[in-house]
Design a protein that fits this description.
This protein folds into 2 domains: 66 residues, no CATH class; 172 residues, Glutaredoxin (3-Layer(aba) Sandwich). Helices cover 61% and strands 10% of the residues. It contains 12 helices and 5 strands. The N terminus is likely disordered.
Length: 243
């Protein structure tokens, strides 16, 4: 019903404007009358302006994703699962202390298992809660350090599954995963990891719709939420359109 309302309103407004198709040749008095009629119509139907602003916002949001597509999908530093030529690329920005990020992790794993050839998932650490938790940034660096020893996803899942992200927990997890602890400790101190996190933050700031975590981008659409039902609808649509 909402879609029908928008269409009907748009058509009505178009008819009002088209009835004055000769306005380019109209004199000052005629133009004033036209402006008065249009103004009155808009005041009587303010939903047109609201709907137009919604459409404009959607276009701007989509443009913001298109403008950063390369950085979103093709940063060689990012860990990803799935073929580079997959039909659909899904990018997730997350913080290991984010409750909704943790809740959506099972869904992300499900997507990976169900669509091993058709979906590529790119993981982007965005420890925006570090100012409060004092552990988010260190946890992100632990995952990236583990990546250098081929254990990113295992560390990622362990961090998402824990409510305590202390240095002690991280070190115990690293040992449990069989990491070289000397290398792990050295990599945790590598400034390159800090640079990668700063790049993710700069990128996030270029996307107006990214106001928190989790933030998912599925091809050219995005959702600033961990609502897995809505995410599944977006994914199904992207897979269908890419078939």
């Amino acid at each position: 019903m909402r879609a029908l309302s928008k269409t009907t309103t748009a058509i009505t407004f178009f008819l009002v404007l088209s009835s004055f198709s000769g306005c380019a040749e109209a004199g000052p008095a005629d133009k004033a009358e036209i402006e008065k009629i249009v103004k009155e119509y808009l005041l009587e139907n303010p939903e047109i302006i609201r709907e137009a602003l919604v459409v404009l916002q959607e276009r701007e949001d989509k443009a913001s994703i298109t403008n950063v597509a390369k950085e979103l999908r093709n940063d060689p530093r990012d860990f990803s699962i799935g073929p580079k030529d997959a039909k659909v690329t899904m990018v997730e920005f997350f913080d290991y202390n984010c409750t909704y990020c943790k809740k959506s992790t099972d869904w992300v794993q499900k997507v990976i298992k169900q669509h091993p050839e058709d979906v590529r998932v790119v993981f982007k650490e965005l420890p925006i809660l570090d100012g409060r938790t004092r552990t988010s940034r260190n946890a992100a660096k632990a995952a990236m350090a583990a990546q250098r020893q081929g254990k990113y996803f295992e560390m990622h899942l362990a961090l998402m599954d824990s409510s305590v992200l202390s240095k002690d927990f991280i070190n115990k997890t690293a040992k449990k995963l069989g990491l070289d602890m000397d290398k792990f400790a050295a990599d945790m101190k590598d400034k390159a990891l800090d640079a990668q996190l700063e790049s993710a933050l700069i990128l996030a700031n270029r996307i107006p719709g990214l106001t928190g975590t989790p933030f998912f981008v599925i091809n050219d659409e995005f959702l600033a939420s961990g609502n897995t039902r809505a995410l599944q609808v977006m994914l199904d649509k992207a897979l269908k359109e890419s078939s």
